[in-house]
Automatic annotation (TrEMBL):
Origin organism lineage: Bacteria, Pseudomonadati, Bacteroidota, Flavobacteriia, Flavobacteriales
Domain HTH araC/xylS-type: 189-299
Source organism of this protein record: Flagellimonas aquimarina
This protein's UniProt keywords: DNA-binding, Transcription, Transcription regulation
Pfam name, any one: HTH_18
GO molecular-function term, one example from the UniProt record: DNA-binding transcription factor activity
Record's protein name: AraC family transcriptional regulator
Length: 302
């Protein structure tokens, strides 16, 4: 897997001038027409992490490789990408059309926590296949982004933030009601949110020398200053899963990424994920995937 791509990389590789907002370190937002990036002569997109958020509305046959999953798209798709999860697009049609916007977390400073929304969470729902009617409801939002960003209105970036939230909420409404997350409405959800932040803060694993420090439910309970039973009840109330399950799911997701997209040996991967013994990691991985790490590395994903 290649080194994490920055917005400066994105602009220079696409032949655009790097904006002053990136040079100064303040929050950044921009919106683009996809067609010039996904035509017959488009360069293949490497599977890696980006240091920015991205929302893409794409029409055309393609495959979305996201974390350890592949989604085949026949017509339209809306994809939410965050800096912690690697992804790429595989074009099937010669030309893809649509729009995408890119932005940094700093752009939303004091305007909300993007990672609190399921569309940007590692185990959330980032890929939405759309019907013709549904895609027609999202296109005007991107067109309004173009209109606002080119305007002279002093508060245009507030409007652009609201348009991003409009995309997020419109997408989340496409999910069945029992999959929708209620944000921070009670104490259990606040604890759940803090747990998720602590868990996610340990990723991505970018070097074999990097190691997870919080691995057990007791580690997280101690860090949060609550009893482990209290933490389990809070997570059960808010996400219907216990602490051990959520930790295991996230570790398995990261391990699949590292096994598939790095040349690290299995011992290095296991150590970086908090396993002192390679055999313990191999047994854990096989229990959750039915494959040994080495077998998984050799399996062709179609």
């Amino acid at each position: 897997m290649e080194k994490k791509k920055t917005l400066a990389n994105f602009y220079s590789e696409s032949g655009n001038q790097v904006p002053e907002s990136l040079k100064s370190g303040i929050g950044h937002f921009n919106v683009f027409v996809l067609d010039e990036f996904a035509g017959p002569k488009a360069k293949p997109m490497p599977f890696n992490r980006r240091e920015y958020f991205k929302i893409s509305l794409v029409t055309g046959k393609s495959r979305v490789h996201y974390a350890d999953k592949i989604v085949k798209v026949d017509k339209h798709v809306l994809v939410f990408s965050n800096p912690q999860i690697p992804y790429n697009w595989e074009q099937i049609d010669e030309q893809l059309t649509g729009y995408f916007c890119v932005f940094t977390e700093a752009f939303f400073h004091q305007f909300g926590n993007l990672l609190a929304y399921p569309v940007f969470q590692p185990n959330g729902y980032p890929v939405f296949e759309l019907t013709d009617d549904q895609v027609n409801s999202f296109v005007p939002v991107f067109k309004r982004m173009f209109s606002e960003i080119s305007s002279d209105y002093a508060y245009k970036y507030d409007i652009l933030r609201n348009l991003v939230f409009e995309l997020i909420h419109a997408a989340m409404k496409l999910q069945p009601a029992n999959l929708a997350s209620n944000l921070h409405s009670n104490a259990s959800e606040r604890i759940s949110s803090l747990f998720a932040e602590l868990l996610e803060r340990q990723f991505p694993i970018e070097s074999p020398n990097q190691q997870m420090q919080l691995r057990s439910p007791a580690d997280f309970a101690q860090q949060l200053g609550v009893h482990i039973n209290h933490l389990n009840r809070a997570l059960k109330d808010s996400v219907q899963k216990n602490t051990s399950t959520l930790i295991a799911e996230r570790v398995i997701q990261e391990s699949k990424i590292l096994i598939r997209h790095t040349n690290w040996n299995i011992s290095e991967i296991g150590h970086s994920l908090g396993f002192e013994e390679t055999a313990h990691f191999s047994n854990f991985f096989k229990k959750h995937t039915s494959h040994s790490p080495l077998t998984y590395r050799k399996i062709e994903i179609v």
